[in-house]
Design goal:
By secondary structure, the protein is of the alpha/beta class. The chain is built from 14 helices and seven strands. The protein has a single domain, classed as Spore Coat Polysaccharide Biosynthesis Protein SpsA, Chain A. The radius of gyration is 22 Å and the shape is globular. The chain starts with 10 loop residues before the first helix and ends in a 43-residue tail after the last helix. The N terminus is likely disordered.
Length: 463
């Protein structure tokens, strides 16, 4: 099974056109005399600034978030749930994974755990065989290592075998509260959601400044998601901790095996099919942040590429009558801030150096980064379950804003690479090592060949 409704054809040409348009937008204001050269950026600053204020700052005084946990007992009936994990070479954490899922309280409904062993070459198959014999709820599906499709292929392989109304997709190292399903399922059912995304909480925020910044970023992301949804906009899936209604996923064609980020791609297909996606602040799903800058660089290249691919693949539907004006405004604003602003800012800086004129995009960049700092405050000062969020103060906000500037490097680099180089789809999973401390390193953090090119094309689909 492969997802329908998207085509990877022409992505290089669309990326090249995007580069040309952003290049023109960055150079054109330098042909104007000051202060008229600031008019384009100033106009966008007013429009996008109003959008960000409504989306982000509204969360500071909104007492009742739009997706809070359901209150009171759920009258039922309790639907069956399949927890699904795509695993490759997870010998260090697969035992803990099964233990964690076995501890989930779901006494009124049927709960099964499906682990797709996607061609593991370590002791994962052996461990899963033993666990399957001792754990009645566990089902194991094995695929050849080169079956294709990456994580999407693994999820498609198990999708048609599931029987539950809901499927909860997790990474192999996910941490969950025992009452998660008893709180999540009523929220999904009462809200008539087709999918829900749990807030992602970083468990190793105290390791270093980089992991702390990522913990802040996950809180910011959850705040922005809630704000976008509250304003009539769009919420998106984030891979780990996504609850999906099985019949809906089958109806939209399963998981797309021609994309580098199955979660972002699925978010757009659900949107275009009129299937609502919700977000939930508490309880969260726990995960680890990468520990090093090279690891972050590889991870964010993949995220950036997947984010751009979905806009390139689905743009005809995004501008059609299938979306309402509020959704179109939300997506347009998000696209301009997340992808266009970094591209134009870099071109603007280069044009300023060549022409010896002043930069012109700085008003928009300053406002965008400043409001991001407000989002850090809104997220990290909010009551939350799970790992504690970083304490907020001016230095912490400055750290978060400085950290976000890495997107001004990642987005232009990835866009140029997409425009110039052909793409090869492979599964570059994160290797979890486990450990008594609860802080696990990923494959991105392991020693690598010091002579390897740090800017080489990272593998695309990841677990």
């Amino acid at each position: 099974m492969t997802a329908t409704g998207s085509s990877p054809r022409g992505r290089r040409g669309k990326a090249a056109l995007f580069v040309v348009l952003c290049g023109w937008a960055g150079v054109a204001p330098h042909w104007l005399e000051p202060p008229r050269s600031l008019l384009p950026a100033a106009s966008l600053t007013l429009l996008l600034g109003a959008y960000v204020v409504r989306t982000v700052l509204g969360q500071l005084w909104r007492r009742n978030p739009p997706q809070s946990s359901a209150d009171g007992p759920w009258p039922g009936p309790w639907p069956s749930v399949d927890v699904v994990v795509a695993a490759r070479d997870e010998q260090a954490v697969v035992g803990r994974l099964v233990e964690r899922i076995s501890r989930l309280r779901y006494r009124h409904g049927v709960l099964r755990l499906w682990v797709v062993d996607d061609g593991s070459e370590d002791r994962t198959p052996e461990l899963l065989k033993a666990l399957e014999a001792s754990t009645p709820m566990l089902r194991v599906l094995r695929r050849p290592r080169h079956a294709g499709g990456g994580k999407s292929g693994a999820l498609n392989a198990v999708l048609e075998q599931l029987e539950g109304r809901w499927m909860l997709v997790l990474d192999a190292d996910a941490g969950l509260q025992e009452d998660l399903l008893e709180r999540l399922i009523p929220q999904a059912e009462q809200g008539s959601w087709s999918a829900m995304q749990l807030r992602k909480a970083v468990v190793n925020a105290g390791c270093n400044l980089l992991t702390r910044a990522q913990a802040m970023e996950m809180a910011l992301d959850a705040v922005v998601q809630e704000g976008r949804l509250a304003g009539g906009g769009v919420a998106e899936l984030r891979g780990n901790g996504q609850l999906l209604r099985r019949e809906v996923i089958l109806r939209v064609g399963g998981f797309n095996e021609d994309t580098v980020t199955d979660d972002l791609d699925l978010s757009f297909r659900l949107l275009l099919a009129g299937e609502p996606v919700g977000v939930l602040w508490d309880p969260p799903v726990e995960e680890e942040a990468v520990l090093t800058i090279p690891a972050l660089w590889r991870q964010r290249q993949r995220w950036a590429e997947g984010g751009l691919q979905r806009f390139f693949d689905y743009w005809p539907g995004l501008i059609s009558e299938r979306l309402n004006p509020a959704q179109k405004l939300d997506l347009t604003s998000f696209f301009l801030l997340q992808y266009v602003l970094p591209m134009v800012s870099v071109v603007d800086l280069l044009a300023a150096l060549v022409s010896r004129t002043a930069p012109t995009v700085w008003p928009l960049s300053i406002v965008a980064l400043g409001l991001s700092g407000a989002a850090f405050v809104a997220g990290c000062r909010r009551p939350s379950e799970g790992p504690p969020l970083p304490a907020m103060n001016p230095l912490a906000a400055a750290l978060g804003i400085t950290y976000l500037m890495h997107w001004f490097v990642v987005i232009p680099w990835v866009t140029l690479r997409m425009a110039l180089l052909p793409k090869r789809l492979v599964w570059a999973k994160t290797q979890h090592l486990g450990g008594d401390s609860g802080i696990e390193a990923s494959a991105d953090d392991l020693p690598i060949d010091p002579l390897a090119d740090p800017l080489s094309d990272p593998s695309t689909q990841a677990s």
